[in-house]
Structure formats: structure tokens, C-alpha cells
Specification:
- With about 210 residues, the chain is α+β, with helices and mostly antiparallel strands.
- The protein has one domain.
- The chain contains 5 helices and 10 strands.
- α2 crosses α3.
- The two termini are about 20 Å apart.
- The relative contact order is 0.25.
- InterPro entries: Restrct_endonuc_II_HpaII.
- Pfam families: RE_HpaII (PF09561).
């Protein structure tokens, strides 16, 4: 299996490949799975249709609270992303999913002035994640993240991202992230009890 490492520098000049020896050590921070790890969402099923599922909560209380700290309605936004993924056969480009949310506007934001509400909130989530704020652990201590991250691809290769321009890096992530679900049955939904069902959401870097 390949273990090649590509070093990308994100700065005011753009995105370009560099030698690892040119990167200051304080900018190298190995963050395992800094992109949103698989997160279980619990829905109430009204009838046998994805369109009739109502979001109840995130299975992990810590994840629910952490996401709510970023934005009160972020759990609801992510659950809406998850339903978009189900409609798209379990995998969807993040930008396409955000376009769907903007069109359907499930949270009924005032979009009359053209504000990209859903994209902004996902950008804010990604900003928190790249600075090493885990959605799993409680946020009761300051983040120890520096301006860098390592993305490990499925083939074993790694992309070391050294970030001098966070906004540009977030734009790069938006262009390369897909929303996916890890469940493997009908509707990619697993029955839990009565009318409650659970499904898992994750971001995948491509």
C-alpha cells in the first residue's frame, strides 16, 4: 500500500506543493480524522419514506452539545444533509448538498437577501474541526490545534495541509468533500425500536 506524502501549503499566493523541509515545525500538527467522524442521527419514522422522517437528536449527547456550541441549529442542518444523501444513493458532493438545502431551505431561513446561510454554517463547522475541536469529546479545555492537518486517503497516501490562509483552505475542503452514510440496509436506515431509526453521517475527502 502506498504511503506517499504530499505537502500542500495554503497561503496568500494560493495552493501549491512544497518540500516538507520548508515547513516550520510548529505548523505540522497530526490530527487524526479531523474531518467530521461518523455521527449517528436518530429520526422518528412516520411512514415508509425518507421524506417523512423527523430529526430527533444525535445519538451522542456530547456530539449534540458540541455541534450546538458551534451553531444552535447545526445538528438540524447536518440531519438535513443526511436526508439529502439518502435521496442521492448514500453519497453526495458537499457543495451539491448545500445547493439542495439552499433551494429547499428546511430551516426556513430568510434567504431573500442572498445570504449563503447553509454554506456559512458548514464553513464554520469545518473551521472548528481543522483547529482540532473534536465533535466527540467535551470542549472543556482550549484547543491545542495549530495551523496544520494531515488527511489520510483510502489508499494510504497522506496529504499534509499547512495552513497560512484558513479561508482559502476551507474553500478547498468544500470543493473536495463528499457527504456519505455508513449504514448498509434499505434506505440505509437501521431500525432501532418502534418508530425510531438511526443513520450515520460522515464527510469524505476526495
Amino acid at each position: 500500500m502506498s504511503t506517499n506524502t504530499e505537502h500542500l501549503l495554503f497561503d496568500d499566493r494560493g495552493i501549491h506543493e512544497v518540500s516538507s523541509s520548508t515547513i516550520p515545525s510548529e505548523y505540522i500538527n497530526f490530527i487524526n480524522g479531523f474531518i467530521l467522524p461518523p455521527t449517528n442521527f436518530i429520526f422518528e419514522k412516520h411512514v415508509d419514506s425518507i421524506a417523512d422522517f423527523s430529526f430527533l437528536k444525535i445519538e451522542s449527547e456530547a456530539s449534540q452539545i458540541n455541534l450546538s456550541i458551534i451553531d444552535t441549529y447545526l445538528p438540524q442542518i447536518l440531519s438535513a444533509l443526511l436526508l439529502c444523501v439518502h435521496d442521492a444513493n448514500n453519497e453526495l458532493r458537499l457543495l451539491d448538498a448545500l445547493n439542495i438545502l439552499t433551494t429547499t431551505n428546511p430551516l426556513r431561513y430568510d434567504l431573500s437577501y442572498g445570504h449563503p446561510m447553509y454554506e456559512y454554517k458548514i464553513r464554520h463547522l469545518l473551521s472548528c474541526l481543522i483547529y482540532n475541536l473534536s465533535t466527540i469529546e467535551s470542549w472543556n479545555t482550549p484547543s491545542t490545534g495549530t495551523k496544520g492537518a494531515v488527511i489520510e486517503l483510502e489508499n494510504g497516501s497522506k496529504i499534509c495541509c499547512h495552513i497560512y490562509n484558513p479561508n482559502r483552505f476551507i474553500g478547498y475542503l468544500l470543493d473536495h468533500l463528499w457527504v456519505t452514510t455508513t449504514a448498509k440496509c434499505d434506505y440505509t436506515i437501521t431500525e432501532k425500536c418502534n418508530n425510531l431509526v438511526t443513520s450515520s453521517l460522515a464527510f469524505k475527502f476526495i
